[in-house]
């Protein structure tokens, strides 16, 4: 089917304008920011990414895998359901509304989400791919953003009042595997590139029991049907545990919980995040059930199940051998060492925040916490030296300050709107004060939990106010939002 994109407007020459906001990186979070900013006039924005086009975890776009959040957690809907960049608008543009309606799906295929984001990225004039940002510096009263055109090699720079970092995370490679990455040891981020080789290998070991590890294990289990094919799944976690997906449990992914978490003392926040691993590092119940069903089918009529699943295992060392890889392991509860010899290893060991060299010119301006991490305020603005008047905002790098909802797609639109409100100095997007039924702690000065009336939802309409913004933080005052979409405070 031929895609019918909204006609893109011509973007200005980057060298001829001072931008109100420049975004570095175009993943889902900065793309949400670009989509919401597109309706705020006359805000001038530019978003740069070194990739030639939008691409979201291409190595893990397996058939049959879905998002772990409902389709309403698209780029814009939870802030602006009228936006032309919603997932429903995407379906309408591709004549897929009726198939989606009859499918009765709440969670959309991951491949379709990737295609939806590409549809938005290709249509927004503010998004510029093939632009590798080399440095961000503060000059006088503006940021200078230098980047290189990856197609021509030409170097450019632009000036901006505010910068938003959406550079994403990078694969985590445990220390025992440092120097071993290649065709024999690979991160799950490159799984699809190596799936054929992994299918044919005699013995494969998957390390890590998050959703990605479970999906890789299940895919290999289904594909590796030969009688001599062995598959091993190891994890440091105490169990192959399900994601916390109860309705009240999910309220940890609301702005209410983010505000509560941000106000906690730093030592309390640092203790809480590891304890909450089942909120964001575990496996969907459906995937666990599918793995068990596959193993059960293999054992019918005395069939041999050549699969080993073992939790509470830490890999302490690894070395390449002529036959493959040898892993030195230790079982935690038994405190016993053992060895695993395997042909291939897939590291489903997650992702971590990047520490980009492009920030080196401003690193001495960043105020840090006791652990050396950037201090980030509730508006996702990095705390900088007092003389820096422009905002340096961050997306998906604030797990330590904003909690487990940081990488969650369901909070992406809200965070983008919060950043826009802060940049503009006005609530160009109206955001609700209360989003959860749960009361997370006591407000300052309270001696007992508040008893707020609930009328039809988590938020009493009488209590809804525009999100607070820092006085004087915005580039523009008196700006009105796009008709029929976001509203502004009275």
What do these coordinates show?
It contains twelve helices and 17 strands. With 490 residues, the chain is of the alpha/beta class. Strands 1, 2, 3, 4, 5, 6 and 17 form a seven-stranded mixed β-sheet that branches. A five-stranded parallel β-sheet has the order 8-15-9-10-11, covered by helices on one side. Strand 5 (142-149) and strand 6 form a beta hairpin. Helix 1 packs across helix 12 (412-424) and helix 6 runs parallel beside helix 10 (285-298). The longest helix has 14 residues, at 110-123. It is globular.
Question: What's a concise summary of this model?
Answer:
This protein is an alpha/beta fold.
State the main characteristics.
disordered N terminus; 7-stranded mixed β-sheet; 490 residues; 19% strand
- The residue-averaged pLDDT reads 89
Overall body shape: globular
Distance between the termini: 46 Å
The count of β-strands is: 17
Percentage of residues in DSSP E strands: 15-25%
Given the structure, what is the number of helices?
12
- Helices and strands, in order, run as EHEHHHEEEEEEHEHEHHHHEEEEEEEHH
If you compute it from the alpha carbons, what radius of gyration comes out, rounded to the nearest whole angstrom? 24 Å
Main beta sheet = 7 strands, mixed
Which residues form runs of ≥5 with pLDDT under 50? Answer: 1-12, 458-490
State the share of residues found in helices, binned by percent.
10-25%
């Amino acid at each position: 089917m031929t895609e019918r994109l909204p006609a893109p407007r011509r973007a200005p020459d980057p060298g001829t304008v001072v931008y109100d906001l420049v975004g570095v990186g175009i993943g889902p979070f900065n793309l949400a920011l670009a989509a919401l900013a597109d309706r705020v006039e006359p805000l001038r924005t530019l978003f740069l990414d070194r990739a030639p086009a939008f691409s979201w975890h291409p190595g893990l776009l397996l058939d049959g895998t879905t998002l772990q959040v409902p389709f309403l957690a698209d780029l814009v809907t939870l802030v602006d359901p009228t936006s032309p960049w919603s997932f429903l608008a995407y379906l309408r543009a591709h004549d897929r509304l009726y198939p989606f309606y009859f499918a009765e799906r709440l969670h959309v295929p991951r491949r379709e989400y990737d295609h939806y984001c590409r549809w938005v990225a290709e249509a927004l004039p503010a998004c510029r791919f093939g632009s590798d940002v080399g440095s961000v510096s503060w000059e006088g009263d503006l940021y200078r953003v230098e980047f290189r055109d990856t197609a021509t090699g030409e170097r450019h720079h632009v000036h901006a009042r505010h910068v938003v970092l959406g550079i994403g995370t990078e694969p985590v490679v445990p220390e025992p595997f440092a120097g071993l990455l290649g065709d024999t040891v690979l991160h799950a981020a490159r799984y699809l590139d190596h799936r054929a080789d992994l299918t044919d290998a005699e013995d494969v070991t998957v390390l890590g029991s998050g959703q990605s590890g479970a999906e890789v294990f299940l895919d290999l289990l289904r594909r590796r049907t030969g009688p001599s094919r062995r598959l091993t799944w190891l994890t440091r976690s105490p169990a192959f545990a399900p994601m916390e997906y109860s309705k009240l449990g999910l309220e940890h992914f609301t702005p209410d919980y983010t505000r509560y978490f941000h106000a906690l003392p730093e030592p309390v926040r640092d203790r809480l995040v590891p304890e909450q691993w089942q909120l964001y590092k575990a496996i969907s119940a459906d995937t666990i059930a599918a793995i068990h069903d596959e193993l059960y089918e293999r054992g019918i009529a005395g069939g041999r199940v050549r699969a080993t699943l073992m939790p509470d295992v830490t890999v302490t060392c690894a070395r390449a051998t002529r036959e493959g890889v040898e892993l030195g392991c230790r079982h935690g509860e038994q405190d016993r060492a053992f060895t695993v010899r395997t042909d291939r290893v897939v590291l489903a060991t997650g992702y971590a925040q990047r520490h980009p060299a492009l920030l080196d010119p401003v690193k001495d301006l960043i105020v840090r916490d006791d652990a050396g991490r950037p201090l980030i305020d509730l508006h996702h603005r990095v705390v900088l030296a007092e003389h820096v008047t422009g905002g340096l905002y961050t997306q998906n790098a604030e797990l330590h300050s904003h909690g487990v909802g940081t990488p969650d797609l369901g909070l992406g639109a809200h965070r983008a709107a919060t950043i826009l409100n802060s940049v503009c100095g006005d609530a160009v997007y109206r955001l609700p004060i209360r989003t959860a039924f749960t009361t997370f702690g006591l407000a300052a000065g309270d001696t007992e939990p508040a008893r707020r009336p609930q009328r039809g939802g988590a938020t009493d309409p009488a209590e809804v106010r525009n999100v607070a913004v820092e006085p004087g933080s915005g580039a523009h005052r008196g700006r009105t939002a796009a008709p029929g979409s976001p509203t502004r405070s009275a």
